[in-house]
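Reply to dn_fold:

You asked what the input looked like. This is it:
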Amino acid sequence: MTRAEDVRDRIVDEVASSGFGAHGLHVRIGDDVAKYRWTPDVREDIHSAAKGVCVLAAGIAADEGEISFDTPISEYLADIEYGAGAERVTLRDLLTMSSGIDLPWSETMMTDWPDLAREFLSRPSRGRVFQYSNASTYTAMRVLAARVGDVVDYLRPRLFTPLGIDPVEWERCRNGWILAGSGLLLRTEELARLGRLLRDGGVWDGRRLVGAHWVDAMHADWVPAGEGPAYERYALAGWAGPGSAWRLHGAHGQLLLFVGDAVVTVTAADHFGADALAASVVRMLEDRPSRR
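and this is what came back:
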């Protein structure tokens, strides 16, 4: 039995004992892979794990000279009426949730205003203050679209096609822009491909798709979040922990957990059980040193 198979079996046992509402599981340790399914293999919304794809999109564009993470976005979106201080907000501020603009998440935020990005940027900024909100990622992708055109079209040859994700299903707002911070539909296996790309520093089957420095930035230069034990530090779409891990974490238990050469992918429909499962999985991965 490979270590990936051992970890998979232990996770399956944990799900059975905890009652966690898992859908799919993919364990990769080194080159070994083990999988398990509880429900039919269909595409599902990966929710906030999609924020990681948005960071990759912006990183690719930055390396192609299309945009800068540290230039005020007002230089890219000139036709916006900015709130006090909002004109100094950068793409990095938006993608680290630290723009200081107060517009908290709500279930109806995509339809509450004629244009969410304009509403967001019309509000004042309090400086580099953390507030987790899909409005921030949505606005970041509006900035990117102003430079590269439709984000899905931009990413298709650069990311999605190389990863074998075709067709791309990403929900859009009523104005035609991708929801960005959610709404990307993937199978467990497709999300796992994204996890493998990140684990391997942006390289896929020997081809570099994104600069390693952008992957590193997803779990470095942490911004204090103060959102509780599992949500204390945030970077470019990545959360610190649990334990020695870092993760992409979408609502209802969509997880990419990274520890050394291991990446565990979980899709689920269990919002409140996800933190406990993530902690259990990381303890399993930390039991023995992973092989390189």
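The radius of gyration is 19 Å.
Hope that clears it up.
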